[in-house]
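Sequence in, structure out. Go.
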Amino acid sequence: MSGDLDQAVAAVTRRLGALRPKVAIVLGSGLGHLADEVQKAVRISYAEIPGFPQPGVVGHKGELVAGTLENVPVVVQSGRFHLYEGHAPEVAGLPVRVFSRLGVSTLIVTNAAGGIRSTFRPGTLMLIADHVNLMFKNPLTGPVLDGEQRFPDMSDPYDLELRVLAREVARERKIPLEEGVYVGLLGPSYETPAEIRMLQRLGVDAPVTEDPERARKASHVFLPGVGAAKSAMTRLSAAGFVEVIPTLTQPVLGICLGMQLLFSGSDEEQTPCLGVIEGQVRRLPQSPDLPVPEMGWNQLQLVASSPLLSGVADGAYAYFVHGYAVPVGPYTCAVADYGGPFAAVVEQQNFYGTQFHPERSARVGAQILENFLKL
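Output:
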């Protein structure tokens, strides 16, 4: 992979000359005309770039177009490589790695997709706030390349400032703009009715909001989370949620870090949290046999009844990714063990939490999400 990347970067750099793009735009179906808007365009056929296959989808030209848009130096990818065409994940991700090596700091991705949310209509423009990868493949699998991380932080994958800017521009130009969660599936077949119902239960059609008033009016609230407690609390505070979340009366589900944030505080950077449930989040004990973070399947021991666990068997498995956990306490409904017991499912009044990721926990996770949405 490293050899293809070096050769591809060298080939594109030669054609760009003195041009140094700052923004890369990946064009989806129906947006190919945008490449024709690029000024002083340099067109580089994929045939000239080592490791770039020719796209096999109608309407995808198979070229990079570099130049300027509104006086901003850009490179536009016209034609993608899809996994369903038989390409490996590292091939699908090769153009993005090339863009990074070229000095691109902003990536804009676009595509045409079906809508699950019942209010969506054909032609709806949706700003991606988060995603769920159900392709079960990742281009970062394998050796860590220069300049990349083994475990990149995905707590804020779509830049907040750029999303705020997009919404401001949409308001100014009176462009209707939704915001939500994108789900990636392998294809090439479309989803069956049963698969669509599954996706609805997973919440991929649920609006993501940074508006506390919208959260107040929601029937159910998810508090998802991966990453660090301090940065998450900083974002919640900036958006005005720290005061709002403890006052919510509808069902609230904290997931992974989101569950930890419901407690008084975290040992992670000594971070004060929301204080909905009394207790302190502790770091998992580390040993040669038990690396931290815990990443994988672990067994649930049910210790108290909860509507969230209806239909979940004692001893069922769920998928965990975490380095911190909450000690067992009066709020605990299910326990897991990793160098010692910790709370895996909690409940206090209308607040619920799972230390594991239900969206990654197969039938058990789907059952828990279904139970929550029925509360």
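Check: The chain has a mean pLDDT of 89. The chain has ten helices and 19 strands.
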